Amino acid sequence: MALNIKPLSDRVIVEPAAAETQTASGIIIPDTAKEKPQRGTIVAVGAGKKDHTMTVQVGDTVLYGKYAGTELKLDGTDYLIMREDDILAII
Question: Could you give the CA distance from residue 69 to residue 71 in angstroms, rounded to a whole number?
Answer without folding.
Answer: 7
